[in-house]
Each structure stands twice: as structure tokens, then as C-alpha cells.
Amino acid sequence: MAVKTIKVDYLARVEGEGALKVVIRDGVVASAELKIFEPPRFFEAFLRGRDFSEAPDIVARICGICPVAYQMSAVQAIENALGVDVGAPLRALRRLIYCGEWIESHTLHVYMLHAPDFLGYEGAVEMARDHADIVRRGLALKKAGNAIISLLGGREIHPINVRVGGFYRTPRRRELQPLAEELKWAREAALETVRWAARFDFPERERDYEFVALRHERDYPFYEGRIASSRGLDISADQFDAHFEEAQVEHSTALHACRKGGGAYLTGPLARYNLNFDRLSPLAKEAAREAGLGPVCANPYRSILVRAVEVLYACDEALRLIDAYEEPERPAVEAPPRAGVGYGATEAPRGLLYHRYRLEPDGTIADARIVPPTSQNQASIEEDLRRFIGGWLDLPEEDLRHRCEQTVRNHDPCISCATHFLRLELEHAR
Amino acid sequence: MRGKAGRRIVVGLGNSNRGDDAAGRIVARLLRDAPPEGFEIIEKDGEAAALLAELDGAAAAYVIDACASGAAPGAVSRFDAAAGPLPSKTFALSSHGLGLTEAIELARALGQLPPICVVYAIEGGCFETGAPLSPLVAAAVVTVAERLRAEIAARVETEEARHA
Fold it and tell me: Among the four residues A102, A417, B35, B44, which has the most C-beta atoms within 10 Å?
């Protein structure tokens, strides 16, 4: 029996700290483990005993790349527990700040973390030496997303202006106009990004995922919608626990989520796109078609292209929201405390983000549950490696290692924003 | 993208809540009380794109960050980043996907590196959440603030002499 192990100690260009071990036995991928060894961070425990009003600022600290997502799922869940409806103008502002996060997070991944895989560079620095104008475009596009978050959130990272019931301060209409000018440029840059990424050479690999994402009656989902799947699931956020479960696996400090009785599933850009293509703006749809994407894409290596389409959509949608913006009468609605359980689900850049809170009568958080997208995608990432790497076993070891890393990066895992490397072991059993 | 052309900046990097990782920011705060004339004092967390935006268009940048190169805590290194790349192992501690080394090299590749770009690295010993600066690093930040003041003053003097 031939067994080979390939180890990559530090896989760069992912968010967080972990390792990967792939075992190849007799020319077949026998196992693939995404080993997350980052220490548990205990955020759910930190929240216990705190007042509900502190939750948006506490959960923002979970991630430096997608803090808005954590804030949005938290306020939605807590408002659900309190029976509060913030109304359409404040919901639109939440959607707008979410546009900012998608633009900055996706652009970072597309340009700095993922594109080097397709263009044959070690990383963004090496790519910038040959493609300076393209990297400049990416950085400026990311900055447009940051500008939205700064204006609505008070600062670019870990925003401080989001509260249960709305915002601490809402912008005047005139404050949004300079942002609109920047976003008009960004929309053009995003369109160029889609065209640029469409020219990459994508491995032909597909599989039959169960895609899970929000689905809304009208909008491409950021902030609202029912939880739907490509295999017929259609539930509200309060039913999440009945349909999904998390389990501990020995090789990871992050829990693995799966469908109860169903197994691994995929959340994130591919899932959103496949379940909501008809909700994209005409410009984004047209760009997707022009880039060779149909209404369904099951090739994870094309996720970079789907992310680029989502950036274009987010720019387009942000401009629409700014154009339609009406200053709310008040920055926040009253949110008096009461006992209850609330559920929230929104679409973080990397996928579905579920929160559940149980509140005491005085508003103290008695219990919190947070299920981030990367935990939900871990099993699918491992499955991708098992299914896809087999076709590349004849490659030189360095190239095979690169394919493994690229396969992980397809899903932009945000293991945490504390560190940036992932250790990979690839084992050939003999 | 471009910052205001010709700016002269001191940038302190780090996380204020992670022990010695705050060293760069503390140096910036020490300088902020009486900034060198014409200099802007900035604090950043170290994320590359944000740092790159600060460097872009600057005439002079002095950057201070904590590092973990294996030297004794409190050891201070000075690098002329305009002259060549930083030793990447020194700054491998960066808690972000792209950190100081990448920001400097991206700036160089994009032609955005300030003509004067100096990096001071302070070796950290403790990076625990919520910890204060360790004693040796607390002493080092004062030293670096003084060295920076002296270096900037000497350069300004040289420039003035050249223009006299």
C-alpha cells in the first residue's frame, strides 16, 4: 500500500490560523482534514450577562473583515426577541452599510488573496510588480467599500454606530452625495473586475452541492430573507436549529455544521448566486452572462468571478439606495427590554451568519448562539479536496500543494481574523 | 486612493489591547503631545490597504511596529525601507492577512513608496489579550520616541542647510 502525505505548514492568503492534511493512499485521496487549531474565542460566553445593547459592539470584534455582518445578525435577532420593527428607511441603511462590507471584503479576496492563484504569482506583492494598474484598481475599489462603512458605521473597522433599534446617528442626504460619486467610479471598476476575472483559466471541476442562502421576495439578500436551499429547504431563521446542527471534530477547534440528516452543504457567494440570480440588478446579470456565467454555477474555482459579480451588484445597489434615501425621522426606534428568544440570519460576505439570543426580562443576555459561515463550509471544503485533488496527483508536489491551497481559498475561509496562515500537510500513503 | 501629496507622517501600528503589540501606537501617542513640525501623527491597526493609502503620496514616512524576531524583548531595530525590503521574518507576527511588510512591498511595486521611509521595530515579549506593555518594551517606546524626534530633527536640519 502506497501512502503519501504532503504538508504545507503555512498556507497564506486565507483569514485565520489552521492546517490542512491530505492523505493519498494508492493514488487516491483517502482523507482531507481542514485542521483549525486557533484557540476557541468564547464570544458566545462573553455575551452572557451583558445588556442586549452591548451586543453589536461586542460581536463586531469577532471579525475585522466582516464586523458589519456580525452586527447585522445580532441586531436582527435581538429586535426579533424584543418584537421591534425598525421600518423601511433604517432597513435600507443597514442594507447600504452591508453593501460597503461586501465591496471591501470581496475585493480584498478577489485581488489580494485569490487572483494570484490564477495568474501564477506567489501573492499580491509579486502580482503588483507586473500588474500595478490592476492592483491599484483593486485597492481603490476596496476603499470605496470602506468609505460606506466609515460614513454609516463611524469608522472602517469594527463600526461603532450600529445599535439595536437602528443607528446612533443617521446621515443627512447631502452627506451621501460624495459617496455616490465615488461609487459611480467603483461601479465601473467593478465591471472591469468582472471582465478581468472572466479571462482567468478555471479548472473544470463541479459537484452537486446543497447550496444554502437567504432568499428574499424582492432583493438579492444581504440583510433579510428566508433560509433556502437548492434541495427545497425554505425556513425562517427561528427554524435554523431544527434543520442544522454543529458537531465537534477532533481535528478542529471550530465546530462543523451540517444539515440534520443531510450532511455537508455550502453557503457563500456561489449559494447566494445560484438561489438568487433572478434578484440581481440588470447590470449585474448582464455582466455575469457576458463573463460566461449561467444562472447556476457549481464550479467553486469560478467563485472569484461570482464574487466580482457580487461586488458589481453591491456598488449598483448602494447607488440605488443612496438615490432613494429618505432621512429617517429618528436614528433609532425604541427598543424596550423584555424576556424572549430572537433569531437572526443575514448574508456575510462568506455566507449565512446565524445568531440566536435569549433575553432576561431586564434585557440581559442569558444565552447566545453564533454560527458563522466558515464553520458551515468546513465540511464542504474538505469534500472539495477529496473530490477534486485526485485529478492532479500526477503534478509535481509543489503544483499539487498549490492546487490544494487554491481549493481552500475558493471559499475565502475566515477562520478568524487573528492570524493569516494555515498549515497544510499532504500525505501520500505507501 | 492618493493621500495629500507631500505629507510627512509618523505611523504607529498595532493593537492597543494585545500587550506589546501596542508599542507602535504608544510611540505615536508620545509624539502626538508635541509633534515634530509639519508631521502628522497617525495610529493604525496594521491592515495593509489602509497603511498603503497613508503611504501613498507621502514625502516622508516613519513607521513604528512591534515585532517578534526572536531578539530580547525591548530590542529596537531600524530599517531604511526606502533602500530595500524589510526582513519578512521580523514582522511575521502581523495579525492580518496582509501586514506591514506587504504594505511596504506593495507600495514599492506600485511606485507609491515615500522617498523617505523608515521603519522602527520594537521586539515584543508578551502579546496577551488585555495585557499592558511589558516593562522592557515600555522603556523601549520612550527610547524610540526620542530617537525618532532626534532623527527627524537632524534630517530637517540637513534639509535646511542644503536649502540655505
Answer: A102
